[in-house]
Amino acid sequence: MDQIKIGKFIVSCRKQQGMTQAALAEKLGISDRAVSKWETGRSLPDSGIMLELCGFLKINVNELLSGEKIMAEIYDKRAEANLLAMKRQIEEKNRQMLRTEYWIALPAVIAGLVMVFVASFVAMPAWSRIALIAFALAMIFAVAFIAVGIEQQAGYYECQKCGHRYVPTYWQTNLAQHVGRTRYMKCPECGKRSWQKKVLTRED
Question: Which of 180, 177, 179, 172 is nearest to 149 (CA)?
């Protein structure tokens, strides 16, 4: 999707409806800064407000994502292209979140283990040794909780019994046995437990 083109289209449609950025933002219950980001191509509207935005601009979602009015005869093809583009965008966003998980967790775990090693083998007062080990363990646990939160929100888990893909709660994810990003959990659809793999989208 061409965010610059979409932004210019939003500007055009907004002006056709005789609205300022501030007026559109007020109708949507957001800041005019968010509208400005859309119109300059720095971001896209969240999916949760796309329908409402399109209603105010007198366009449909496919036209919004295409950045132009769509003629009836090419509507279906453009709709399919927009759905594929959105799927790719979601996949990339989830992929970036999972990369972030590694970049946060790996250095913290390495640093924590180095601190424990230093505290165990380098001569120092007992209170310093205890404090260093306690700090290292606290850092590892804190980062682990953050990393699980990122993993839980990025993409879906796929039940190996029925193929259902879903987002478990944070604590379901955190407390499940796991090997890497594969976790042993109960599927909310079929009720069976299996080793569920992380996937980036709801559908193949």
Answer: 172
